[in-house]
């Protein structure tokens, strides 16, 4: 069988899947997105799968409550080791940014109030980690409404576990937040995962929190890229 890369573009269900790899199939990608709670209304236009690079979601808002078409890039190594977590996180950016643009003037303020962290001094919009609301909101989506079922071999480290020093809570431990995120943030259009019980990661000791690997944030523009980081400890284990 030829080892040449496959380049396949198919348009189904509102978005295009482009495979620049032979490692996964288009049907698998669509299945993982469905498991993550994909909804056509969020404006996902294209999903690219590559063998190297970053997992990243590119979204945008024109300032008039009109979101730009969203693009997700996924890497085959991540999909082969932890597909549901990877896809749920990147789609979480698309989902959250769509509603932020359409209903919240592209602002995180109401989200931060509902999350119970508005005005906290540790919030940092310039970091690539969980202290950045643009990253935290995608983690909240993946935990509350996404799919974390990648098997017992994958250790999931949540933002609350990474940022235990500042007292960040798990999203389901913030009173009323899950309902607010599903119903108010979306103005009455809850994601498919709202009807299910959120996945609860196995707690990890706070002292065992690995060091995060910084990832450069893409240049801001009309379409704002949001880069997925390698969760702590995964890079050393060859998972990212």
3D structure, described in words:
It is a single chain. By secondary structure, the protein is of the alpha/beta class. It has one domain. It has seven helices and six strands; from the N terminus they run ββαβββααααααβ. Strands 1-2-3-5-4-6 form a six-stranded mixed beta sheet.
From the helix content, strand content and strand pairing, which structural class follows?
alpha/beta
Identify the overall geometry.
Answer: globular
Order of helices and strands: EEHEEEHHHHHHE
Main beta-sheet annotation: 6 strands, mixed
Number of domains: 1
Tell me, rounded to a whole number, the average pLDDT: 84
β-strand amount: 5-15%
- The total of beta strands comes to 6
- Could you give the order of strands across the largest sheet? 1-2-3-5-4-6
How large is the radius of gyration?
A: 17 Å
The portion of residues assigned to helices is 25-40%
The end-to-end span amounts to 27 Å
Number of helices: 7
Poorly predicted runs: 1-11, 202-240
